[in-house]
Write a structure and sequence with these properties.
Largest sheet: 6 strands, mixed
Number of strands: 6
Distance between the termini: 16 Å
Number of helices: 4
Order of helices and strands: EHEHEHEEEH
Strand content: 15-25%
Helix content: 25-40%
Structural class: alpha/beta
Length: 106
């Protein structure tokens, strides 16, 4: 299942007991739209094993600034609310790269 982040629920979403993938993107971003089907497939495949969150940088500016999002799409990974350093992905990346990082957190 894919969740939509808001400024109000962002912290609650990343504090899940399950590993969390956050896709920082925007509706006007072409590469973000190209990556969307991959993110949806990962959300479906990892349902019950991980939380997949879509975070629009225009709606969640504070979260984007807090995590240094300079290019979109950017995917960050969290475990028990903690950013997993070194797992950041930037750009329209292959599904295998995303699932490899998620698997390392399971």
């Amino acid at each position: 299942m894919e969740y939509k982040a808001t400024p109000q629920n962002f912290q609650d979403l990343i504090n899940s007991d399950l590993p969390v993938l956050v896709d920082f993107s925007a509706t006007w971003c072409g590469p973000c739209r190209a990556l969307a089907p991959t993110i949806e497939a990962v959300a479906s495949e990892y349902d019950g094993k991980a939380v997949v969150v879509k975070c629009d940088v225009d709606e969640c500016e504070d979260a984007a600034m807090q995590y240094g999002i300079r290019n979109i799409p950017t995917i960050l990974f969290f475990k028990k609310g903690q950013l997993q350093e070194g797992l950041r992905l930037v750009g329209n990346v292959p599904k295998a790269e995303i699932t490899q990082r998620l698997d390392s957190l399971l």
